[in-house]
Amino acid sequence: MGAFLRFLFLLCAVATSAFGQGPQVKDGHPYIDDKSLLGNENGFRRWTYTIKPVAAPPPIASRGATTKEARVVEQAKFLLASREAKAIVLMDGPSVIYAGLKEPATEKTLFASASMGKTVTALAVGQAICAGKIKLEDRAAALMPELEGKALGNATVRDLLRMASGAAEANTGPTKGSGYIFTAQEETDLRAGKLDIVHALSSDRLASAAHGTFSDYKPGEQFAYKATDPLTLGILLNRATGVSTAQWMQRMVFDQAGLAESGRLNTLCAASAGVFCSDGKQAVKTDAGVFLHLNDWIRFAWWVKRASKKSDCFGKFVNEAAHTQISTAKPGTKWGKNSVRGYGYLIWTDNPIAPDTFWAEGWGGQRIGWNYKNDRMVISFSNHEIWIPELYALYRDWMNAAD
Known about the structure:
Elements: H1 3-11, E1 24-26, E2 29-31, H2 34-37, E3 38-39, E4 49-51, E5 61-62, H3 67-82, E6 85-92, E7 95-101, E8 110-112, H4 116-130, H5 140-143, H6 151-154, H7 157-161, H8 184-192, H9 197-201, H10 204-207, H11 228-241, H12 245-257, E9 263-265, E10 267-269, E11 282-284, E12 290-293, H13 294-308, H14 313-321, E13 326-327, E14 342-343, E15 348-349, E16 357-362, E17 366-371, E18 376-382, H15 388-399
Parallel strand pairs: 5-7
Antiparallel strand pairs: 1-2, 3-8, 4-9, 6-7, 6-18, 8-12, 9-12, 10-11, 13-14, 14-15, 15-16, 16-17, 17-18
Helix pairs in contact: 3-15, 4-11, 4-12, 4-14, 13-14
């Protein structure tokens, strides 16, 4: 296996869907089955949060491909037909040039974010920062006293956004670096709706310091991909804003993106099994678990791009989030030829196949790609990770197809 494909295990996000499916591997590569990837209303837990559409969603424009673009569109069609992909979208600003779906996916499908949901969490944090509810320098324990005296409690919001809390990696997933942190019993409780996420995050197993070669890692010192950091951010959002994290995401992310149809958001209810919690005890599964229709993922992608070009507080945050804030290499690691080298705020950067790009990424091949040069974007939903280097190459060509 090449260095780039080995790194994909670290690169990708863990998918724990509304159906309770943990991370899977097929033929040695990250995989997500159709039941987990393609949501339907009959499969969701009763206590998921229903994301509401806005009254007047922005229309989605489309146009025909130019001669130069048509060659890239044909390649996208080939990949959709021949790879384990379910959707590929090529965008130029607000205009969709190509949007392809493969059965059983349809326009009514709710596509799972997998850990593209981490990027949603980063944007919600950015909105809270700009609203004066929280600061990048705030320590986790200041808002979550259950972490006082623990290594995780010393991490700042900025550390958590960079996957650099210094807390134990505690990997329980099928691959090293998968980021999955729940034990078998915790997974059982998660599926039953009984997991108290605050209790889990403050346990010594998750909140203690990670061990380096000679000493414990300090917050901000080392990148380590794990669900602990975005899940902690979800609790901090609730504590800082005074409303449930689901309500904050609805108001400050989904409403701003202008969704046209209802979606779903996985929640972890610490009060009682099977009961949706509308109070502050409700915790969103902020490492994954956003389900939107493809057209609304398109609206979300364009909203992020528009925000990144503004000079207001949130625009500056998105721009900072989209640029490298920490190296993904451990000390002494030599870069592979195609190793992705950077991480922003729950956003991947420094992709050598597609230079000058930043990505929301999810287990099995869920991707949204943006770039710094122009408004061209790519969206992918997929079952299998093995072909994703080809998607990056497709996006590189798409970026360069502008006349």
